Each structure stands twice: as structure tokens, then as C-alpha cells.
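Design review, sub-item: ligand-bound model
Attendees: FS, YL, KQ
YL presented the inputs for the magnesium ion complex:
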Amino acid sequence: MNDKQKKILAVDGVGKYFDKPDKTEKICVLDSIAFDAEDGEIISIVGPSGCGKSTLLNIIGGFEQADQGVVRYEDQSITGPSSERAMVFQSCALFPWLTVRQNISYGLQRKKQNEQEIQKQVTQYIKLVGLNGFDGYYPEQLSGGMQQRAALARALIMRPRILLMDEPFAALDSQSRLAMHRLLLEMWQAFKPTILFVTHEVEEALFLADKIVVMSERPGRVLRRINIPFERPRPASLIGDAAFLQMKNSVQALLFR
Amino acid sequence: MSLPTMKKKFHMKIDGVGLLLPVFILILWYVLTSIGSTPEYFLPSPGRLTRVTVDFLTGYLQITPYAGDFLSHSLASICRVTGGFLLALSVGLPLGFLSGHIPLFKRVVEPSIHLVRTVPGIGWLPVALVWFGVGGKTTVFLIALAAFFPIYINTVQGVGAVSPLLIRAGRMLGANRWGLITTVIIPASMPSVFAGIRTGLGLSWAYLVLGELTGVSQGLGAVMMDARMLGHLDMLIVCMICIAFWGRISDLILVYVFRSFPMRRFAPN
Ligand SMILES: Nc1ncnc2c1ncn2[C@@H]1O[C@H](COP(=O)(O)OP(=O)(O)OP(=O)(O)O)[C@@H](O)[C@H]1O
Ligand SMILES: [Mg+2]
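KQ shared the predicted structure:
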């Protein structure tokens, strides 16, 4: 892992406040969040529900503004969303009026590329995520796992430098989740995007990531950043190894203090 | 087009149970009129009505003064409905879009629009008569006014309720402001907008009758008014049937048009 020296993303002292519904006072959701991501790294972010994980991803994605601190992408502070930082939303957010093929084409079409060229690429990505034959299906006609595949393809086809994933597989059964892990790691091997992966599942976080960021309850702070040493490619049996279990226990101890 | 595909295309469903009540009423009607307990001028028999309808359509029997005039009167009415409805569309859709999309715009226009809306459509009739005179223009005005509100309100609702998540997805995938409007906001608000347009068209036919009753020479409402004065109840009822017929046809055409849109997934079932 020698080519992972370049810092691509720097989260530096990020704080975020939200109005209470009655607007009488503000509550602190994120408090001095700081971590770096190196190019091509997979980072998992774990933390209790409501600790601000989605908010953090939204700030990195450029959908929301930090109230304190900055997020720098390639040494530039983030001003808005970009397809270089593509998000796979928890609920897919596929366009329900477009077919799978149209959903995946959407991003490239915004770039006004040659339509034939686009469709060729789309075909390739549809195959890549294993949705061959489902081109003409509408999102509502797909299973949850297939929707996630389509959402993944829609993001990946933009060739993002950073892939932001907000509990993308939370709604899947364990079988499909394992399949999605394999798919995600294959994609990562092929394109080497930097991945920020938010999850509730410590096991999932450890299995996928090079580094995990453990967050505290609201207001979300970084409790610990842990490097994960396991060699890639990681076999599915890794989750039964003693070293893995030990790590899982220590992270869980941090979370459920 | 074969019948099944036509049924599918226009989404017609025929439920046998639903036919029971109309058939029962038809029989009752037939019995009442044939035993002579109700005079023809008070309640025409089904047979008489059928003959008058055929006469109105074809002019073959010459039993009423309106023989064979179906098409010319229908055409006059259809033109007014189309005119008023298109007017309502051309004002309601853009205004509704702006209100739904720009909160400040909504705050400016919405109170006034709701104020105007509190006056029932019929309440506008006398003013309209002063402004536009008796006849066609008044009718078009009433139709446009009545159809405007559902179109406007549903458009505001639809545009305002587009999921922020979908907007984020669009922005992330590189859509600019205009791109967001055309590729996310408009298709996402389609179901609601369509519901409004459909309601508006239905109201157009209702207000057509109101407008035409004030006195025009051509149009189904005009025939109704005339027939009432001459005591042709049969003709009056035939006109009601004709209006229902055209109302349904126009609704089917509307649904058909919406189904052929690229975002047809959102057309009504
Ligand atoms: N737009 C908003 N306005 C006010 N409060 C908000 C808003 N968005 C989020 N919050 C608050 O911020 C906190 C963090 O929300 P966030 O969605 O980031 O949590 P999360 O860590 O992603 O939780 P989960 O794991 O359940 O998805 C919550 O307490 C939530 O109520
Ligand atoms: Mg969340």
C-alpha cells in the first residue's frame, strides 16, 4: 500500500449546529470533527444513531455548510456538490420516473457527452453491477439490493474521486449485503476511489475499511481513529478470526460505554 | 387498435356489478313512463329520448327543432372549453410553478389568489356579464377562472413537495439550475400537476354550462336554455348526456396525452 500517500480529503475541526424545531436554541450536532483521507483509502465511520454521521457526509458532499472548521478536497475548501464526490444515499434516491438505464445515464448526460458513447458506458456499468437485463425496469420494480446496485452504478459511472456512502446496505438482508460488499470491493479494486462508508455495523466497518473513525453520541466527536491492518483481499472467513473479533470487541466497547 | 388494447390504453374498466344499479333505474324509468303515470313533458320515456338523441345526431327524424345540430353545437362548446381551459393552463402552470419553486413569490401572490378563490365561481357571473357581455367571452372567462385554481394549487403543491433528496441527487450528478428544473422538479411534480389539470378540465365543462346558459346562439348550453323555454325536456336531457359524453372524452384524451409523456410512470392508472 505504497501509493496511498496523497491526502485527498481533510476534515478540519468541523462543527455543525441545528435549530431546535421551536427555534429557541441551537443544538450542537458535530463538534470539532477532524480526520484525513488518503487517496484510494476506504474509511468507515461508525457511531450511535443521531450522532451526526449523515450530517457529516452531507457537509463533505457539499449539500450542507459547516458552521465551524473546513473540509478541504484536494486542498480546496468545498463550496457545493460535485460528481467528483458522489454520494450513494441511504434510500438510493434513484429517480422514480426514469428506468435503470436512464438513471445511470443521467450524470453523463448532464455533461453533454456523445449519446452513443454514454450508452456504451452505461451498458458496461449495468453489467458491472450485475443488472443485465434490467435496463428498462423502473426503480419501484427492483428489489432493495438491486436499487442499491443501480444507485452505485449511477455514482460510479461519474468516476468520482470520493465515494460517499451513507449506510447504503442497512436495509438489506445479510446475504445481499455480503454480495454488495464483494461488489463494492471489486469496484474499489478496479477504480480505487476513496470511500467514506457510514454504517451502524462494526463488523461491516472493520471488514471493508483501511481505517475506521469512531464517533461519540451527540454532539458527535471523534472518539478514536483506528487503522485496520488486515491484508487484502480479505476472505469472508476473516470475521471469525481472533484478531478481528478482538478488534470488533474493542470498538463495540467504545461505542457502548 | 383492437378492443382489449384500446381498453388498456385508455384504461377503461367495466365492472359488471356496477351495471346493476343503472339497469335497475332504466327499467324503473321505462315502467313509469310506459304505464302513463308521468306525462312526456315531465319525464320523457327512454324510447322518446333515444329517438331525440338519434335525431339530434343525424337529423334523420326531424322531431325537434334541433335535428342534426349535434356537431355544430358541440363544436361551439368544445371551442369555448378548450379556450378557457388553455387560458387557465397558461396562467396556472407558470404561476403555480413559480409559487412552488420560489418561496418569496408564493408569499407575494398566494394571499391574493386565495382571496379571489373565496368568491364562488358563480359569484363572478354578474361582473363577467358587465365586462365581457352576454355570450362567448363571458363563458371562456368563467371557465378559465374556475379551472385556474385547481391547476395552480396542485402545481404549487407538487413543485413544493419534490423530495430534497432527489434534488441533491440531481445536483450531485452535475445538473445545473435549469437542468434541475427540467429533469428533476418538473417530472417529480407531474403526478400532482396532472391531478390539478384533470380537475380543472372537469370544472371547465361545469362552467361551460353556466356561461352558455346566459345566452349564446350556439353551444350545448344554448340548446339547453332554448329547449327549457320551449318545453323540450327530452332535448334538455339529451344535452346533459352530450356534455357528460364530451367531458368523458376530453378526460380520456387528457389521460392519453399524459401517458405518452416521457415520465409516463406518473400518469394516473
Ligand atoms: N435539517 C435538520 N434540522 C434540524 N436538526 C437536524 C437536521 N438534520 C439533522 N438534524 C439533527 O442532527 C442530528 C444528527 O442527525 P444525522 O442524521 O446526521 O444523524 P446520523 O448519525 O446519521 O443518525 P443515523 O445513524 O440514525 O442515521 C440529529 O439529532 C438530528 O435531529
Ligand atoms: Mg444517518
